[in-house]
Every structure is written in C-alpha cells, then in structure tokens.
Design goal:
The protein is of the alpha+beta class. The chain contains 11 helices and 12 strands. The strands form 2 sheets. Strands 1, 2, 3, 4, 5, 6, 7 and 12 form an 8-stranded mixed sheet that branches. Strand 9 and strand 10 form a beta hairpin. Helix 3 packs across helix 5 and helix 4 packs antiparallel against helix 5. It is globular, with a radius of gyration of 21 Å. The chain binds 2-deoxy-2-fluoro-alpha-D-galactopyranose. 2-deoxy-2-fluoro-alpha-D-galactopyranose binds next to helix 5.
Length: about 375
C-alpha cells in the first residue's frame, strides 16, 4: 500500500512526500467500556493498516486528501480549532490541533500536505479512526520534530476524537494502534497507562480469530456510548468512588442495595469485565489461549444482558459461531453494531463461516462479512 499512497500523494500534490507512516486498526480481545472507567483492557493491533504520506509546506496551509473521499480539505493552521472541523478530515486535522495541546507550537510549525489510504474496514468496530489518528500523530511528531512518546501520542489521538470528532471515547484504541506487537496483545491499565505486551500464541495453538462484521453501522459520537459512560459515572458517584476502577466484585452486594436496577447492571458489567481482563491475562499465561474462551463468552453475556450494548445481529453471530465449533465469541468494540470475534480452531473455520452466513440468511439479516485477523505491529515509519 505504501507505493500506491506515494503515487497518490504525487498525483494529488505534484511532489514527493517527505515520508510515509502507517498505523493498524485493532481488535479488542476483552475489556469493553472499561477504559474510560480507568480499568483494564486487552486489545491487539491487527494486520489492517492506515497509511499516510506527508510532507511539510513552507506556509501555514494544511491540505489533506484520502482514498475514501473525493475532495481534498484545506485549512490554515490559524483556523485550526475543533469547531471548524467536520467529516473525515476531523480525524487528521483534529490530531494536528491536539498536538498543540501537547506541546507543539502551532504558531510556528509549518503547514503540510497529507494523503491517507487504509484497508481497515470503516464502521466495523475495528478502529479505523484510531488508525488514522495514530498514523498522523506519529507522522506529525516526526515532521514537526516533537519527539513525543507513544503513550502521549495515544492521548493526542484520544483528545482529537473527543474534541474534534465529538465522541467521548477512552484511550484503548489509540493505545492498541501505537503499542501493538506481532502475535501479542496490549494489556493496558487505563489509570496509570502502564502497558505490557503479552504473547497471544493463537497461531501456534492452531487458532484463528475470525471477525464477523455485521455491517450494522454505529457511531460513538451519538447516543448509546455517551449514555453508558454517563451511567458509569453516576454509578461511581453514588458508590462514593472517583471511578468504577475503585470497586471490585466484593462491592457488588452494596452496589445492588444502593443503585437502581439499570445503573447496578451497568456497574456490574464494568466490575466483572475488569476482573475478566485480569483473568484472561493470567489464564493465557498459565494455560494458553484455548482456555480464555469461556471468559470471552462471559464478556459477551455481560454486554448483552447488563450493559445492553449488543444488537440481535451480534448475538446471532456469537451464537452461530459457538454452535459451529468456535471456542469462544463476543462482540468487540463499543457496541450498537460493528463486529464480533470468534476464537476458532483453524480446521473449523469453513464450518463456522458457513454456519454464521446461513444463520443470517435464516433470520433475514444482511449478509455479514467474515475474515480472519492476526496480531500485528503498531504504528511505524515505513519510509
Ligand atoms: C470504542 C472506544 F473508542 C474505546 O475507547 C472503548 O471505550 C470501546 O469503544 C469500548 O470498549 O472503541
């Protein structure tokens, strides 16, 4: 893809880029909606990437173009505030603005031109947005000579998403995209931002991670995502905690007594999901990847019944995959659409794919898109 992006940059801007950078999408193995509760997550970067070719200009103009939109967007650094940003360009331009909040002097840095291409599916819950943010953040940190570390670049991407895109999301997706490693997951403490790269061993165990993209579209800038976040904050406050991270399974009886039923179930999801992340990491280390399957199933049930962020298509994907031999399955990402993952013995992949496709036909749902992913390296400079 780097050759194509280089050629696209050349034909769009009539010159060669100064460099090419890339960043992957992510799958969250487990730990959903725990990031903004200062809890634990365990995602991995995937072998689908966003590539950005970029070159500084001699003036203060920014021009961004991409393979997924016809028009190039132009803006001056002097006008670069979240309120002026919209559409797809809010992701790269939001990052440029957010770097200004993390030390870049936007009154002196040069403008730039950028061309972006990606094979991370958009709207599938695989963090195509974080892939753009991470690639652009790394590129601009290099070109503007900022020397920011990856943990800070993740916060830059999150701030861009929160302020320029308007989605009140946590730090997980950008962290996975920037810190991922081949065949490994990123175990992240979202309070301290300490992270550990932990080998997954799926390939060696003969396991594939299947993505079942339901093609039910979702947006975290509207509706359910923000209301779940608000419930978590209300639940923590009612329990006298600064965040749900401070509560554990021992606090559940008191939570049941103090909270209304809906808030209690939201809180119970977060408390038990944090525990499941810790259990997944321990189980993986002690017993290998096949044994984490039950935790994936339990995570899905908790999101379906307690956090109520699943949809019928995701539930069906999980049930059909499990029925055809997947060891464990769960929806992944923020919910209300997007994709499920199914941890599947390689020999059973054709059966699982066929069973899921047939189940969708039988229920009259739009055909899902099914493919496998592998844990890949995080953001990097390509050229
Ligand atoms: C989305 C958000 F961007 C993440 O921060 C995280 O909250 C996730 O939903 C749910 O776990 O991907």
């Amino acid at each position: 893809m780097t050759d194509i992006v280089q050629a696209d940059f050349l034909s769009r801007f009539n010159r060669r880029p100064a460099g090419i950078w890339s960043a992957p999408g992510r799958v969250n193995l487990i730990g959903e909606h725990t990031d903004y509760n200062e809890g634990f997550v365990f995602p991995f970067a995937i072998d689908r990437r966003t590539v950005v070719a970029l070159a500084p200009r001699e003036d203060r103009i920014i021009r961004v173009a991409s393979s997924f939109a016809a028009e190039a967007i132009e803006i001056s650094l002097d006008e670069l505030i979240p309120e002026n940003l919209a559409g797809w360009s809010a992701y790269p331009l939001g990052v440029a603005w957010a770097l200004g909040q993390f030390g870049a002097d936007l009154t002196t840095v040069p403008g730039f031109e950028a061309f972006i291409d990606s094979d991370v599916p958009i709207g599938a819950g695989l963090s195509s947005s974080a892939a753009i943010e991470s690639a652009v953040a790394l590129a601009l940190s290099d070109v503007w000579g900022l020397g920011l570390d990856r943990r800070t670049l993740a916060r830059v991407g999150q701030l861009a998403e929160n302020r320029a895109v308007g989605a009140p999301t946590g730090i997980m997706d950008q962290s996975a995209s920037l810190l991922g490693r081949a065949d490994a997951g990123v175990f992240l403490d979202c309070r301290s931002l300490e992270s550990e790269v932990i080998p997954l061993g799926f390939d060696a165990a003969g396991l594939d991670v299947l993505i079942i993209d339901t093609r039910v579209s979702h947006s975290h800038a509207t509706g359910g995502y923000a209301s779940r976040r608000a419930s978590c904050e209300a639940g923590a406050a009612a329990m006298g905690a600064s965040s749900l991270r401070d509560l554990g399974v021992d606090d559940l009886p008191r939570a049941a007594a103090v909270l209304d039923d809906e808030t209690f179930r939201r809180v119970r999801h977060i408390i038990t999901e944090n525990q499941r992340v810790l259990d997944t990491v321990r189980t993986l280390r002690e017993h290998g990847p096949a044994r984490i399957a039950g935790l994936l199933d339990a995570s899905h049930a908790s999101m379906r019944d307690d956090f109520e962020i699943s949809v019928p298509e995701l539930d069906l994907a999980v049930e059909a995959a499990r029925g055809a031999g997947a060891l464990g399955a769960r929806m992944t990402g923020g919910g209300f659409g997007g994709a499920a993952i199914a941890l599947t013995p390689r020999a059973l992949v054709p059966e699982v794919e066929a069973a899921v496709a047939a189940a969708f036909v039988a229920r009259g749902f739009r055909a899902p898109v099914i493919f496998d992913v592998h844990a890949a390296d995080g953001a990097r400079r390509e050229q």
